[in-house]
Design goal:
Blueprint lengths: L10 E3 L5 E3 L7 H10 L9 E3 L5 H4 L2 H7 L4 E5 L3 H5 L2 H11 L2 H5 L11 E4 L2 E7 L2 E7 L8 E5 L4 E5 L4 E3 L4 E3 L9 H13 L4 E4 L3 E3 L2 H24 L4 H12 L11 H10 L2 H14 L6
Parallel strand pairs: 2-3, 3-4, 4-5, 9-12
Antiparallel strand pairs: 1-2, 6-7, 7-8, 8-9, 10-11, 12-13
Helix pairs in contact: 1-3, 7-8, 8-9, 8-11, 9-11
Organism: Sphaerisporangium album
Keywords: Hydrolase
GO molecular function: hydrolase activity
Length: about 300
């Protein structure tokens, strides 16, 4: 993504019905295809492609991957399905946010034939064959079209962005609270739900597997509260977005080893994945919408 390696993950579940979880961006689609080929998955072998949500760093490659693998069904939460079939509104919204950066960051989401899209509701499952399923668990807060996915055979839980952004080099975990859907209580309930599912590992889309489930989810909830508390202070003080971002960035800097890492690229990737401007903007938007007594 954006010319960086190791910034977002797709996961291949091998079995009777091979399944790809997350496609990454459109610009990453050829990389994903070549990786699947190297693992012995041909054009007619992939049974399903599942995305945790439709943000372009997770699902931007869906249309391309669907073209490479014509036998695969495309699985997404029901609130995101129409945007995969007709991405025009999603792409226009993304263009407003990212401007000219959109092309280099994400590329363009190609449409997927609506007949190939299958939706998940608050629950639902994907057949992996041999009695094995990928169970969907609705987990909004980060986005209203977000699902976590639990593998019945391994206990692996694909957490998308609902548990935040994980950086394997440093072990940092940072929230992902972009506009327009962020809601603190909903986000915390999603994290609690993940704990109740008792997974063996958390598989972050950004990125990689983490085995220390309880401590990681506790940290995820803590990070959400820290960023919200600081942004509330800025909001109450009447700061505009730029000043709020500067304040929150300064007060959270020491929480993350990546920002003091000797490798500048690591810090750049971390900021691209979970940038203070996006996080603070999402929280500010929520604060503007929330009733005073609820915050």
């Amino acid at each position: 993504m954006a010319g960086y390696a190791g910034i977002t993950a797709g996961y291949l579940i091998l079995g009777d019905r091979p399944c790809l979880v997350e496609t990454g961006t459109s610009t990453s689609a050829p990389v994903v295809r070549d990786a699947l080929t190297s693992l012995g998955v041909g054009p007619d072998d992939l049974a399903s492609v599942v995305v945790t949500h439709i943000h372009l760093d997770h699902a931007g490659g869906v249309g391309d991957i669907a073209g490479y693998y014509p036998s695969a069904e495309i699985v997404v939460h029901e609130k995101g399905a129409r945007h995969l079939a007709d991405p025009s509104r999603l792409m226009a919204s993304a263009r407003m946010v990212w401007g000219d950066q959109l092309d280099s960051l994400f590329g363009s989401l190609a449409p997927t034939d609506a007949a190939r899209i299958r939706t998940l509701g608050d629950t639902g499952s994907v057949d992996l064959g041999g009695g094995r399923v990928l169970a969907g668990h609705y987990s909004p807060g980060h986005a209203k079209h977000h699902v976590g996915l639990l593998d019945s055979a391994t206990g692996d839980l694909y957490v998308g962005d609902a548990a935040g952004v994980y950086l394997p080099e440093t072990g940092d975990l940072r929230p992902a609270t972009p506009p327009p859907d962020f809601d603190l209580e909903t986000a915390l309930r999603s994290v609690a739900l993940f704990g109740d599912l008792r997974p063996q590992r958390l598989l972050f889309s950004h990125y990689g597997p983490v085995a220390d489930v309880a401590a990681t989810l506790e940290r995820s909830a803590e990070e959400l509260r820290v960023w919200v508390d600081l942004t509330k202070q800025a909001h109450a003080a009447g700061m505009d977005l730029d000043h709020a971002v500067a304040m929150v960035r300064d007060k959270t800097r020491e929480r993350y080893a990546a920002l003091a890492f000797e490798d500048a690229e690591t810090a750049e990737r971390f900021e691209l994945l979970s940038g203070a401007p996006s996080n603070v903007a999402g929280i500010m938007h929520w604060l503007d919408l929330a009733k005073p007594e609820s915050i």
